[in-house]
Amino acid sequence: MVQRPLRDHRGHDGDARRHARPEQGTGGARQLLLALLAHRLVDDRGARRRAFLDLAAFPVVPLRHRPAARAAREGLDAGSTRGICRRSIRRAPRATRQRTGRENRQGRAIVDADERQTGRAIAHRPSSALTPPPAVPAKAPAPTRLAARLQRAHAVADLRAQAARRLPRAVFDFIDGGAEDERTLRDNVEAFDAWMLMPRVGIDVGTRDLSRSILGTRSSLPLMMAPTGLAGFFWPDGEVAGARAAARAGIPYCLSTNSVGSIEHVAEGAPEGERWFQLYFLRDRDWMQALLSRAAASRYRVLCLTVDLAVQGRRERDLRNAFTMPLKPRLSTALDLARRPAWLAGAARSRLGFGNFETAGGGFTSVAQHVASLFDPSANWDDIARIRDRWRGPMALKGLLHPADAERALALGIEAVIVSNHGGRQLDDVPAAIEALPDVAAAVAGRAEIILDGGVRRGTDVIKALALGATACSLGRPFLWGLSAGGGEGVSRVVEIFRNEIDNAMTLLGTPTLDAITPDHVRARRGR
């Protein structure tokens, strides 16, 4: 039906004025005013054209029919409304005004007849052009360059490559290297290839639970951050950054005796989350006891006693690079540092040294010299038993490969054993951690928890370790690669990658919970 022309707003149609009731005209005038105002805010020419055509559907009734009190309450008067109408019509496109005028002139008789018959003006049609646009959600802030770079890392190997680009060669080799020919270092990773996963089907895996209790506290993943020395050397305040990232992820963080940040500093910087403290046997037993007391006072819940570092292994990369703490000035080192300004700037802001020892920051000290001067190679099982008696919380013994050693640890009341060869950094040509795990698991027989340390690079590695008897796995080099690549954000990215890979593997394996993973889900690869 063709509508009444908009130019009749002065009331040229006497019949419409006589039959339209004032209250209906009041609402129609208000709608007309709002529509005209909305029309002026439309930018798109096509939308403006549709809006203008729809305005003709509004009943046009002189404002003198509006009750005076209501007009005053609305804050309108006839003159202001006519001015708005005239301005809105003048701003409409010329072609639209002409076409609308023709259509209205042709259909005026029909409209007048309808109004005379019904006694009221024709109601307006709703217009999509006048409908307010949906609210646009606020855009998320653009990611930083660091965050964007970390998101491009889709595997732990990608973070390793980013860490290698940021760190000086000598510093990266300290993380990446192993003892002598590094065969054990390589075996730790490659030995996982000896096992294949055997999936099951027809199992509801719509919901997966990746959490597990580790020494009495629920962890969101079967993972923990391994104790790694000098984390603060790779990123400013690296121990605090790592502890905070672990707390955000809901997994344990273990602080090394050889940390840059002290026991108290890390506890103050990362008060939330599950914190463990790792201890070596020291020649000065009083100092060793003081470290235990400081850890207990700072609320480190679990003690991790490492027993495979009587002396330092021969790490030939460190020897060739003359690695010291801090770095000793050399021509090759200076040239390398010049190409690593980001790391150099961070190191310049940091207090480098061994934060838990009085000698921190004094001269250039190699890790081998540090170990030789402070660590005690004469420690035995009686010393381990005394530490067990003094520590009041849960305790894990780290550095075991032989099943008989695991049985002896259990006899002392130790709650967890960590199957580890120190990341291939101590004695070369020893079994890979995953190769030693089945025998240790058989000896423990469920009487204690088992944590696998060494060679874990994929979520499927974690699944294989759990199937072979481990309670959880610890992340050493992956933690340091993520930290070196992006600080706390890099550590969070490492955890995120492992979380996604573990969840994907559990779904495809047919295991909705970690407890559902059994030895039946792995097979030895033939020919190995």
Description of the structure:
This protein is of the alpha/beta class. The protein is globular and about 65 Å long. Helix content is 48%, strand content 9%. Helix 22 packs across helix 23. Strand 6, helix 14 and strand 7 form a beta-alpha-beta unit. The longest helix is centred in the last third of the chain and has 33 residues. The chain is built from 23 helices and twelve strands. The N terminus is likely disordered. The strands form three sheets. It has an eight-stranded parallel β-sheet. The protein has a two-stranded antiparallel ribbon with strand order 1-12. A two-stranded antiparallel ribbon has the order 2-3. It has a domain of 353 residues: TIM Barrel (Alpha-Beta Barrel).
